[in-house]
């Protein structure tokens, strides 16, 4: 059948670059907790997962984390705002890409 939508996933990889709703959040304050990160980003949509990455030895924040929205359209809402501030620090939310999809650095 034509028009059944079966070809919607056959587009270029960029068409679904943030289909998962996952974002990398850089520039976090050392004091930022998963709860404060969730509170800030919940105004953009329902959050499925929220984590602040910590050093395994010291347990101190590594200054970045990840947010996964229930609806991938929430990523666009976040990206539509040019400035984000949390815990008195400018943070840098970006679309998260799987590690295998990132280009490998090339030594010249």
Automatic annotation (TrEMBL):
GO terms for biological process: central nervous system development; regulation of translation. This is RRM domain-containing protein. SUPFAM superfamilies: RNA-binding domain, RBD. InterPro entries: Nucleotide-bd_a/b_plait_sf, RBD_domain_sf, RRM_dom. Residues 21-108 form the RRM domain. It comes from Perca fluviatilis (European perch). SMART domains: RRM. Residues 1-15 have a biased composition (Polar residues). One of its GO terms (molecular function) is mRNA binding. GO terms for cellular component: cytoplasm. The keyword Repeat applies.
């Amino acid at each position: 059948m034509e028009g059944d939508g079966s070809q919607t996933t056959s587009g270029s990889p960029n068409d679904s670059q943030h289909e998962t709703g996952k974002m990398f959040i850089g520039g976090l304050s050392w004091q930022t907790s998963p709860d404060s990160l969730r509170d800030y980003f919940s105004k953009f949509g329902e959050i499925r997962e929220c984590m602040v990455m910590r050093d395994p030895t010291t347990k101190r924040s590594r200054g970045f984390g990840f947010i996964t929205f229930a609806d991938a359209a929430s990523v666009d809402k976040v990206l539509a705002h040019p400035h984000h501030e949390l815990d008195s620090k400018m943070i840098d939310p970006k679309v998260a890409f799987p590690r295998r999809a990132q280009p490998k650095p090339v030594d010249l």
